[in-house]
Amino acid sequence: MPKPLTAIVPDPEVLAAMRPEDAGLVILQHLHGGGAASFHPNNLLMRSGPVAAYPHQWQEVVAATLAEGLAWLEREVLIARRPESFQGEMVISRRGLELVTSLDLSSYMNSQLLLRASLHPALIAEDVDATFARGRYSSAVLLAFKALEVRVRAASGAPATRQAQELMQFAFNKDNGPLALDSPDPSERISLMNFMAGAYGLHRNPNAHRDVGFDDATEAAEIILLASHLLRTVDRIAGRRAGGGQPEEAKRG
Question: Is the pTM of this model over 0.85?
């Protein structure tokens, strides 16, 4: 028998308020707990099905929430149509089985905080999103700022002797930095240099030398998105320089 929904989420009000992805993971645990080879979505949603374990006044809204959860599971390919079935039966997919048997469900949910489409290509190339999805938040932050360091070094032509914050101070120096902000206001150029050096020093150096141990997935995602923003800033400045743009101060010097 499948694991009762009430054993996973005893309070129907809590279940009814869930987002589709949360409800989907509840369904996944429910189905896997029963060890069934296949299931029919309608049986899950019928008032005579597992929904019946909840008070009558909650059954309709719980069923509607579960329907959204099923739609999310199918979209994520965590469930799939059973081959050679003409009755609409479904099975937990290989991806779904891997998730429910070997992965931390909370890590999977947290992975939704860091959407691949929002990341700079350099971070995707370093598997930052995959590392984050596995719950390795400190490693993901380290990889993100390593990618930033590599991009700044390449775009600025900085020698290998320029390390850590010194690299950022060289690249974004307000007077002659290869990546100085294209602005006539010296304070803005100084601000960018300090921003780059500060973000790098705060989030790259500690991770490189000790286990910072991020426990908060939201905080780690925000820091990675900051690295993504800084990478796009470097791209924008480097692109303008390639087109012949220079900061006003450099033109005067």
Answer: no
